[in-house]
Structures are given as structure tokens and as C-alpha cells.
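Allow me, if you will, to draw on your knowledge of protein folds for a short while. I have a record of one protein: its chain in single-letter code and its fold written as C-alpha cells. Could you please explain, in whatever detail you think fit, how the C-alpha cells follow from the sequence? The record follows directly beneath this note:
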Amino acid sequence: MEIIELQDGQIITIRKAAKEDASIIIPYLNEVAGETDFLSFGKDEFMMSIGDEAEYIEKNNGVMFLVFMDDKLASVSQLIGHTKKRELHTCELAISIRKEFWGLGIGKICLGKLIQYAKHDELLKLIYLEVVSENKRALSLYKNIGFIEAGEIPALMRVDDRYLDVKMMYLPV
């Protein structure tokens, strides 16, 4: 567990997720998905059971970090590792932040923790991610950290009657 002071003086706590956290992660994900169109699922569409999420956390070939502010879950970020031999050197990055905590630098902190984790894992050589092309704040952060744009898939996501393009990015580690 690490305690970090943000630029505005607020304090966050960041730690690795444990299987016991599944009961707070599921409602969090279903709530934050309703706050933005930039996640791959919408409000109440994260259908994993608490038991399945607990097992996923325990057996995940990667890492998941939780950020808390004032005992409230503010962010879930993770590197999703692969199990196929040909992809063991890669992992997918995923970050979500509760809307009330946007713009505080939490995303940059989470990215730093995930990249640091990947650099200390001798097997990992590449982090990749998908980001909605309209998500300018995330795109800027990823580019500033060193992620490289690999291409764009038009209309990969559909939110209501709107189609969203998605950029693919990667970072060698």
C-alpha cells in the first residue's frame, strides 16, 4: 500500500487488489461505466459475479491496482496478462476513474505504477491498449508517457446510435 499526496494536497491510497475486493469492484465498474462513453461496456453491463471476479483477481496473469480517496474507490487499473505462449510477453492496459476524481492526476499515477510493474517483470516486453479516439485527455496522457499509436479502427464501439472510432496504442517495456 502506498499513500500519495496529489498536487492539490488531497491524499490517495493505492494498493494491489485482493480477491476480497471483488464485492466493491463490481458495483464500482457498473457505476463508472454510466459516467462515460469511453469504456467498452455501459452502466450495469459488467456481468461478472463477485465470485468470478474474486477468482479472476486471484488467478490473473497480471496486476490490478485500486485507488482510494477518503475510503471511496476512485480508480481501478490493471495489466491483463495472457496465457497463450505466443502472447505471454504482452499485456493489455485498462484504467477507469470515477468521474468526481477526473483531472486530479490519478490516471498518470496509475499508469506509472502499471509501467513500473511491467518493467520489473522479466517476461513482459509490451503493453498495449485501446482508447476511444474522442477521449483526448487519455490520448494526450498516453502519448506523453511514450505510447505509440498503431492505428485506428473506425466504428469499433457503438454507444446508443453513435459509432466511436478506437485507437490502438502500445508501449515497449
Notes: Residues 106-119 form the longest helix (14 residues). The radius of gyration is 16 Å.
